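Suppose a colleague, Dr. K., hands you the sequence of a protein chain of 289 amino acids and asks what its three-dimensional shape might be. Before reaching for any lab equipment, you can write down a predicted structure in token form. Begin with the sequence itself:
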Amino acid sequence: MQINRILLTAIGSVLLAMVTIQSGASLAKQLFPIVGPEGTTALRLGFAAAILWLVFRPWRALPQGRDWQSIIIYGLCLGGMNILFYLAIERIPLGIAVALEFTGPLAVALFGSKRKSDLFWVACAIAGILLLMPSLSSAQGLDVVGALMALGAGACWAGYILFGTRTGKQASGGITVALGMTVAAVVLVPVGAISQGVALICWEVLPLGLLVGVLSSALPYSLEMVALRNMPTQAFSVLMSLEPAIAALAGFVILSEQLTVLQWSAIGLVIIASIGSSFTPKKAVEMGV
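The predicted structure, expressed as tokens, is then:
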């Protein structure tokens, strides 16, 4: 009974995190004309780091010795995922960017399997990506640089999952997120400040930047850390299969981004691949509480 409650809490945390992070991404895109992706990333990470330090007070239980190595790498992956994703959605629709970015967590799920039958799900994911490729060269198609940025964000996302799991077992989940967010902010806030200057502290920007920081980072990353501590890495990656669809819907509702039937089909193939991988037998994993 206790295990069921823990699992339900983890599942609910992942679902809520996906809704908030994609809503935050849609709002963030509205900041691009004012402060660009670099400035938006700086606002998101800066506000999120400050909020997480106030909430979790990580100075009370700082990691020791070599534990810092995993946290630093986790923070760098988190920061890279943020900036590359924003650079991507500046050029391509939100739902497609997430579908391409999702190759990272999907790879984590599939590489965790040793079944030959999972090659079919790999083929589905590749087919989904290839469906997008013909439009890259057309006048109205996807931007090549934007697509590559989204794939780079996916690689960082894979690192975020792997090192998030490792750091989450070494320290409190909230403290881990706060420290990782701080690492990302230390690296990328100066980049945004140099790029955008005083535009970052305009009163028309700060409230929306704070909201983006809460919806896109502080809240969802805390929820995801709760999930990572209470379910296997592969199960987490599979559950995230809904992310591209949620992103596409958020882009449609908030940003009025329209997708073609072919693009929806590509997103659907990525989702099918991740759902299919959930049928892979898994060894029992001890859950953290």
